[in-house]
Amino acid sequence: MTDMRDIVFVGGGHTHALVLHELAARPLPGARVTVINPDPTAPYTGMLPGFIAGHYARSELEIDLAHLAARAGARLVIGRAGGLDRDAREVQLRGQAPIRYDLVSIDIGITSDLPQIPGYGAHAVSAKPLGTYARAWEDWRVAQATGRLAPQIAVIGGGVAGVELAMAMAYRLRGSAPEITVIEAARLLPNIGTRARQRLLAHLAAAGVRWRDQVQVVEVTPQGVRLSDGGGIAASLVLGAAGSRPQDWLRGTGLELIDGFIAVDPFLRARNDPAVFAVGDCAHMVHAPRPKAGVYAVRQAPYLLANLRATLAAGGLRPYRPQRDYLKLVSLGGKSALGEKWGVPLEGHWLWQIKNRIDARFMRQFRA
Ligand SMILES: Cc1cc2nc3c(=O)[nH]c(=O)nc-3n(C[C@H](O)[C@H](O)[C@H](O)COP(=O)(O)OP(=O)(O)OC[C@H]3O[C@@H](n4cnc5c(N)ncnc54)[C@H](O)[C@@H]3O)c2cc1C
């Protein structure tokens, strides 16, 4: 059929997973759908701290893209995009033939690599992509439990993700007197209200996690990290949770970028190319900038789908207007959580149960 149009989803992030789920019930007429992702599954980061703490098995965090694609009648290509030829309308893959598109949507998340720090690539692991961290954590725990490695961990980055992961690791290692230090170049927990921040710092201290702020990591070595004040911290595991860096290859696409993220219009289309959509953490919503959070990736899904349908049928597009704030839930290691909305902190075991229910419901829909 000559008038079939090719829709290519680059990355199996949260928005694309939800769109695939919807396509199973209502396909895109006249369209052939291809999904490109490096693995047949995509991890759900909201449950990562729970996995690290030992509350969930690895399989519980996995969104089965192969299953979703099969149900949606889509082709899944296991591969990694490395470029976009917008004249030829092709997605370039690393080590594989390019894939042609009529419309392409990009949902590839961010990376928390810190390549500017000497030794980082050789001696540290990043919180994202999650698969590498999950494997490194399991290997490290085996080595630590058998006495081959000291339970000393340095976490680079004192935002919510770094603090949450530090508490999760402290909980998992309870009983083995771990030494966990969070290192932050500026102020610890900068993006959270004053009262919630104070409570989180108290929980961090109670978990035995130390922190150093206003100091930078200048080198990662096999023995730990070296700091800008001349000091150092011994660590057999160095975790990078500082960056939310966009992927480098986006720079070569000619798309309008803001700080390396794809600038999109209210319809989630790249501002300088209506054949390209971008969603989730890799996009920057120029009309309503928001922090990088899964909640926006999730909420964008119905808008992306509606706007792909509208573009194929030459119909009207729907603008996405993101909510201003959302309930931030930070797990505290054990099965309790701290939440904040509109600057008001809440806390308890019940809040963890709520988070657990939200996460379980989110994952259950993909297994239907
Ligand atoms: C520890 C931690 C806890 C968090 N907790 C929360 C929380 O409680 N609530 C919340 O709202 N947010 C949370 N976040 C943020 C949340 O994880 C992200 O905002 C969310 O995952 C973004 O989803 P996404 O759709 O942009 O893509 P992602 O979930 O990052 O998925 C991207 C997908 O694209 C694939 N991919 C990457 N590169 C390529 C490529 N070149 N070609 C093809 N495929 C590619 C990846 O393998 C992956 O499958 C947390 C983050 C961390 C690190």
Write a concise keyword list for the protein shown above:
single chain; 368 residues; alpha/beta; FAD/NAD(P)-binding domain; 2 domains; six-stranded mixed β-sheet; five-stranded parallel β-sheet; 30% helix; binds flavin-adenine dinucleotide
Structural account:
The chain has 368 residues and is an alpha/beta fold. 30% of the residues lie in helices and 29% in strands. The radius of gyration is 21 Å and the shape is globular. The two termini are 32 Å apart. The mean pLDDT is 94. It binds flavin-adenine dinucleotide (FAD). Flavin-adenine dinucleotide is lined by residues 10-15, 36-38, 42, 45-46, 48-49, 80-81, 107-109, 127-129, 161, 164-165, 247, 280-282, 292-295, 297, 329.
Overall average pLDDT: 94
Bound molecules: flavin-adenine dinucleotide
CATH-defined architecture of the largest domain: 3-Layer(bba) Sandwich
Low-confidence stretches: none
The total domain count is 2
| Oligomer category | single chain
How far is the N terminus from the C terminus? Answer: 32 Å
Number of strands: 25
Radius of gyration: 21 Å
Strands across the major sheet, in which order? 5-2-1-9-21-20
* Biggest sheet character: 6 strands, mixed
